[in-house]
Design goal:
The protein has 223 residues and is an alpha+beta fold. The protein has one domain: Spore Coat Polysaccharide Biosynthesis Protein SpsA, Chain A (Alpha-Beta Complex), CATH 3.90.550.40. The chain has helices at 20-35, 51-64, 81-89, 138-146, 174-184, 209-222, and strands at 5-13, 38-46, 69-73, 77-78, 94-99, 111-112, 124-126, 128-129, 133-137, 150-153, 156-159, 165-167, 170-172, 189-200, 204-205. The longest helix is centred in the first third of the chain and has 16 residues, at 20-35.
């Protein structure tokens, strides 16, 4: 009998709240995972004003708890529960979806890339993503842990995996820094363009990165 796969669902929550659409998606994801002999363990790192520290603590829990994977999911997203299974089924160490930014002024997604062309695996190779919906294999998060500076927080050993940084005079957020570290460690970062989560703010912000790619391609072709 095979050992149950153990997956940390890592969710920072500044104010300790989870959106109802997040909760519904999570419950359905857990149900689907159980049917596939996968244990999803949601952990909500709440009431920490420093998102970098909250994420570092979640990395620490993943290392200490012997998890096989981390799936990062932000508390203001709604997603198709099957997407979690699809991310876990993929052999890539770092792969995720995206979501539209909370604005109607322009259609923008939390993706850092100059490349919009899916490769043979159906994924787009990118420089970075938002950490709102991303799977990291144990190999990837252990490498991040072992190659980041150690510090102590409330008597526990942690690593400065997530941090903000100034690069070439520009401020880089903690997710940008994390994916830059992964690239430096030799990991490719992949986006599944079919996975566009709903971003929830004053309303639901819907999008489709896959359709966005097609529109951009048509503009290039048609000038």
């Amino acid at each position: 009998m095979s050992e149950t796969r153990k997956v940390l669902i890592a969710t920072p929550s500044l104010d300790g709240r989870l959106d109802v659409w997040y909760a519904t998606s999570l419950v359905n994801s857990v149900r689907v995972a159980q049917a596939n002999d996968i244990f999803l363990h949601p952990v909500f790192m709440s009431y920490d004003a420093l998102i970098q520290r909250a994420r570092n603590d979640l990395f620490g829990l993943a290392v200490e708890g012997g998890y096989d994977d981390i799936v990062w999911i932000d508390s203001d997203l709604e997603w198709n529960p099957m997407w979690v299974m699809e991310l876990l089924a993929r052999p890539e160490d770092v792969v995720g979806g995206t979501y539209r930014k909370k604005t109607d002024e322009q259609e923008m997604y939390v993706v850092k890339t100059k490349n919009l062309t899916p490769e043979e695996n159906g994924l787009v190779a990118v420089e970075g993503l938002g950490m709102g919906f991303v799977k990291m294999s144990r190999k990837a998060f252990i490498d991040l842990w072992e190659n980041s500076e150690e510090y102590e927080n409330e008597g526990k050993v942690r690593r400065m995996i997530c941090n903000i940084a100034i690069v070439d005079g520009k401020l880089h957020s903690e997710d940008t820094v994390v994916f830059s570290k992964l690239k430096d460690l030799g990991y490719d970062v992949w986006l599944d363009p079919r996975m566009t989560c709903v971003h929830i703010g004053t309303k639901k912000f819907y999008g489709s990165f896959e359709q966005f790619i097609h529109r951009i391609d048509r503009k290039v072709v048609n000038g």
